[in-house]
Amino acid sequence: MGTIDLYLSWGIIYAYALLTIMLLTAFVFNKERLLGWTVYILVPAFVVHTAVFFLRWYWFGYFPANGKYENGVTSGWFAILLTVYLFLRNKGLRGVGLITVPGTLLALGYGIMVDPRGAEVHIASLKSSWLIIHVLFAQLAFGAYLVASGLGLLYILKDNKGRRSEASPFYDRFPKLPVIEEVMFKFVVYGFIADAIMIAAGSIWAKDLWGSYWSWDPVEVWSLVSWLIYGVTIHFRVSLGWRGRALAWILIFAVFGIVVTYWGVDAFVKNSLHALGVSGGR
Question: What is the pLDDT of residue 276?
């Protein structure tokens, strides 16, 4: 039964690869019609991605967050969910896919290559409702941060055209810079709140699982650092008036802290309590 979703996942990967090529071509060569076609690839791919997400949940009886493959499926699903929302709500915000689509492609591709089995039987201590709450808000935060990063890139691209005083009907059809910035900031705040709930839920769960609310595990530390970076960014924007390109550049690169938290620590630190497997904590 697990073989079916692996085949479907490869189909999703190819669809996201095609979509990445279409988005890059559209923005590099200012192909408005090609950008318009991207929604016809994104929506069906997301439908299949949704099927994989819920099929694994149904088949194995737990929220799909066990192992690198499932982590790629779940984190990518939330990122693409928010991307589809923006694609359908405002055609001018489709540039967000320049980050979210290849990001999901890499996460899912990495997971399926290094962890093709995906699922293992959960040990009893991991069969907790707090697992769903903790991981749900973690992946929701990741999706929101990735969207903010994509909007930051869209902001920079449009601003660059304006600074060169170049006539560009392609970029003129995107929302004005203040509008992009406002939506970008809303997703940062959304992700920051979801991230805070994730950390709090993880602490409550850790008390039951490991005996303490905080263990200074590498994943916990990176998660806290990443959350604080976004918190400082929000503070700078609200209190010090950081706007425009400075804010966009910060949000483009801040997401790498989340990537390190979710994938980097597990790849290089073997004794983490959060190892993404049956003996791990997430």
Answer: 45
Q: What is the DSSP letter of 279?
A: T
Percent of the chain beyond pLDDT 90?
Answer: 57
Please state, rounded to an integer, the average pLDDT across all residues of the chain: 86
Give me the residue spans of the domains in the chain. 2-268
Distances (CA, A) of 231 to 21, 45, 80, 149, 195: 34, 33, 24, 15, 10
Cα–Cα distance, 214 to 220 (Å, whole number):
8
The model carries a pTM of: 0.89
Q: Do 201 and 134 meet the contact criterion of CB atoms below 8 Å apart?
A: yes
CA geometry: angle 130, 122, 255, nearest 5 deg:
55
> Cα torsion for 48, 49, 53, 58, to the nearest 10°?
10
Q: Give the angle 237-93-247 at the CA atoms, nearest 5°.
A: 20
